[in-house]
Design brief:
The protein is built from 13 helices and 2 strands; from the N terminus they run αααββαααααααααα. It has one domain (77-343). The protein has a two-stranded antiparallel ribbon. Helix 3 (81-97) packs parallel to helix 10 (242-267), helix 4 (125-146) runs antiparallel to helix 5 (150-181) and helix 5 runs antiparallel to helix 8 (204-217). The N and C termini lie far apart (52 Å). It is globular and about 60 Å long. It has 344 residues and is an all-alpha fold.
Length: 344
C-alpha cells in the first residue's frame, strides 16, 4: 500500500511540475511575443524596433510588465464591479487551460526518470480545445457588458458574433481530420504523422480554413474588428487599465501560441520531422521540433497582421458564412468520400 501511495504521489508531483513548467513557458512566450511583434513590424516597415531596454531591446517585455503593474487600476463608476473584475480572469484562465492536452513531445528522460511531455492525454483532446476556446468569448462578453460603455459593448458583440461564426467552419474542418485519422486524441494524431505522413498533405483545404478561422478566433488582423481603434477606441477592453488590461492582452498572445501549437500538431506532424527521431537527446528533440514549427506560425500570424488591411464587418461575416462554411462542408464531404473509397 505504501509503495502504491509513493508511486501515486511521485506521478502527481511530476504532473504538477509539468503544469508549472508549461505555465511559465506559456507566459514567457506570450510576453516575448509582444517583443517579437514589434520587431517583425519594424522589419517589415524598415525600422529598428525596441532597442533601449537591455541589449537589442530584450528587456522590453519586462519593462512593459512593470509598467502594467504600476499603472493606476480604476473601475468605472457605473460598471458592474465584480463582473468587471472577473472577466479578464475568465479570459486568461480559459486561454491557459487549452495547453493541457497538447503533446509537446514523446517522453523526456531526466535524472533517470521518464517524464511524459503531455499533461493529460484525453481521448477527446481536439474537442476539449474547441470547447475551451468557445468559452473564451464569455470573458470578452462579460467584460464588455460590465464596463457600462457603449464602445466596449459594441466590441463585445462583435467578438461574440465573430467567434460563433468562425467556430462553425473551424469545427467542420476538424471533423474532416477526425474522419481521416479516426481519433480525437491529439497524441494519436501526432503519432500517425511520423515521417512525411503529415495531415496537411491530405487536407490542404482543411488546413487553410482552420488557419483563417484561427486568425479570427484570436482577433488577429485582418479580423481584429472587436478592438477596432478607429471605430471603438479599444473595443471590449476600452475601460480596462493596469493588469486587467494586461490579462486581456496576454490572453490574446497565449491564444496565438496555442493556436500555432494546435496547427502544428494536427496538420504538420507535431513533434515529428522527416529523418529526425523525436526521442533523440533524451526526448528533447521532440519539443525542439514542435516549438520550431510553433514559432514559424507565430511569425506568420504577425506577418499577416502587418501586411493585410482590416476587413469591413460585412466582409468578415460574408467570408465566414458564405465562403468558409460551404468550403468546410465540401471538404468534409470530399474527405468522407475519399475515406470510403480507400476502405472499399
Amino acid at each position: 500500500m505504501s509503495v502504491l501511495l509513493f508511486l501515486f504521489l511521485g506521478a502527481l508531483l511530476q504532473k504538477f511540475g509539468l503544469v508549472a513548467v508549461l505555465f511559465l513557458v506559456t507566459l514567457g512566450i506570450a510576453a516575448y511575443s509582444t517583443y517579437g511583434e514589434r520587431k517583425v513590424a519594424a522589419f517589415l516597415q524598415d525600422r529598428v524596433g525596441p532597442d533601449r531596454a537591455g541589449p537589442f531591446g530584450l528587456l522590453q517585455p519586462i519593462a512593459d510588465g512593470v509598467k502594467m503593474f504600476m499603472k493606476e487600476d480604476f473601475i468605472p463608476q457605473g460598471s458592474e464591479k465584480w463582473l468587471f473584475i472577473l472577466a479578464p480572469g475568465i479570459f486568461i484562465f480559459v486561454a491557459l487551460m487549452t495547453g493541457a492536452v497538447i503533446p509537446w513531445g514523446t517522453t523526456l528522460t531526466l535524472f533517470g526518470a521518464n517524464i511524459d511531455l503531455q499533461v493529460t492525454d484525453i481521448n477527446i483532446g481536439i474537442l476539449y480545445i474547441l470547447g475551451f476556446t468557445s468559452l473564451g468569448v464569455y470573458g470578452i462578453m462579460i467584460g464588455g457588458w460590465a464596463s457600462n460603455n457603449k464602445y466596449s459593448l459594441y466590441g463585445a458583440i462583435r467578438a461574440s458574433s465573430q467567434m460563433i461564426s468562425y467556430e462553425l467552419a473551424m469545427g467542420l474542418s476538424v471533423i474532416a481530420v477526425v474522419m481521416l485519422t479516426g481519433t480525437l486524441s491529439l497524441r494519436t494524431m501526432a503519432e500517425m504523422q511520423s515521417g512525411f505522413n503529415w495531415t496537411v498533405i491530405y487536407q490542404p483545404l482543411g488546413f487553410l480554413i482552420f488557419f483563417i478561422c484561427a486568425l479570427a478566433e484570436c482577433n488577429r488582423a485582418p479580423f481584429d474588428l472587436p478592438e477596432c481603434e478607429t471605430e471603438l477606441v479599444g473595443g471590449f477592453h476600452t475601460e480596462y487599465s493596469s493588469m486587467k488590461l494586461g490579462f486581456y492582452l496576454f490572453a490574446e498572445y497565449i491564444n496565438m501560441f496555442i493556436s500555432s501549437a494546435v496547427i502544428a500538431t494536427v496538420y504538420f506532424g507535431g513533434y515529428n520531422f522527416p529523418f529526425v527521431d523525436p526521442a533523440w537527446l533524451g526526448g528533447l528533440m521532440g519539443p525542439v521540433v514542435l516549438f520550431a514549427k510553433i514559432f514559424f506560425f507565430i511569425f506568420v500570424f504577425m506577418w499577416i497582421r502587418w501586411t493585410l488591411p482590416r476587413f469591413r464587418y460585412d466582409q468578415l461575416m460574408h467570408l465566414g458564412w458564405k465562403v468558409l462554411i460551404p468550403l468546410a462542408i465540401l471538404n468534409m464531404l470530399l474527405t468522407g468520400a475519399g475515406v470510403l473509397w480507400f476502405e472499399s
